[in-house]
Amino acid sequence: MRKLNLCIDVVTIIFCLASCSTISSSSVTGTSRDSLPPMQSSTSASSPLSTSSSTSVISIFSSTYSSLSEDSTTSSNTKVVSSLSRSVGGIFAFGESAEDFVKAAKAHKIKINAPQDPGVPPEITNPVNDGRIYQAYDDSYYYDLEGLQAYYNADDAARKIIVTSSAYATGLGLCVGNNYDKMVSLYGKGYVEISDEEYEYYDGTKYMTFSMAENVCCQWRIGADSAAGDMSE
């Protein structure tokens, strides 16, 4: 009887071992190992995707940064010229009427030089006697102050203001006697060098030009007629 039980136990063990082997084999077959790429294949498949993705991100970031930098520079230069350069010594503003210009001069007790010859063209029958000097060739006129001249067109539209005195600073504080480095620190390098040591900033509607001699500003002007604007067209 003991022998019979022993045989049954041996058969049971053999059966269990056979069953485990079958289950193990079917498990491996069921997972379809061949359908999974080997580790090396998996790594090489994901690596190009990762590199491509990183490259795309870097490329997009770089182009975006470049675009923002250019836009910021342009915007900054435009803002400098259009909103701040209108001021002339904190007294006058380019674009103001001739009447307002004269009022500002009187309010600050700035003498408008009386012209010895106002140069009134014959077609002007009622010349304005407020110190303006007419120019016969185009009916425009200007006011002559010490270190400053303000020009107007025949229709009284502001044309330009020329400053040759350190008494009148720009809206950002640059004046005659300052050097090139200060100009760049205040206005940036978004200028056009229209001639030797003559630097012009232009916003599409008006310009600001600094004339230098040996890197020192000897004259600056603001106006509506731009050499840089003509060159850019």
Distance between the termini: 116 Å
Strand order of the largest sheet: 3-4-5-6-10-9-8-7
Helix and strand content put the structural class at alpha+beta
CATH class descriptor name of the domain at 87-232: Mainly Beta
Order of helices and strands: HHEEHEEEEHEEEEH
**Average pLDDT score:** 72
Largest sheet: 8 strands, antiparallel
CATH topology of the domain at 87-232: protein yfey like fold
CATH architecture of the domain at 87-232: Sandwich
- Total DSSP E strands: 10
Rg is: 41 Å
The portion of residues forming beta strands comes to 15-25%
Entry keywords:
alpha+beta, 233 residues, 42% helix, 20% strand, protein yfey like fold, disordered C terminus, two-stranded antiparallel sheet, globular, 10 strands
SSE arrangement:
Elements: H1 2-30, H2 39-84, E1 87-88, E2 92-93, H3 98-107, E3 133-134, E4 141-145, E5 148-152, E6 158-163, H4 180-187, E7 192-195, E8 198-202, E9 207-213, E10 216-223, H5 227-232
Antiparallel strand pairs: 1-2, 3-4, 4-5, 5-6, 6-10, 7-8, 8-9, 9-10
What would your notes on this structure say?
The strands form two sheets. An eight-stranded antiparallel β-sheet has the order 3-4-5-6-10-9-8-7. The protein has helices spanning about 1-30, 40-85, 100-105, 180-185, 225-230; strands spanning about 85-90, 90-95, 135, 140-145, 150, 160-165, 190-195, 200, 205-215, 215-225. It is about 40% helix and about 20% strand. A hairpin with a 6-residue loop joins strand 3 (about 135) and strand 4. It has a domain at about 85-230: protein yfey like fold (Sandwich). The radius of gyration is 41 Å and the shape is globular. With about 230 residues, it is an alpha+beta fold.
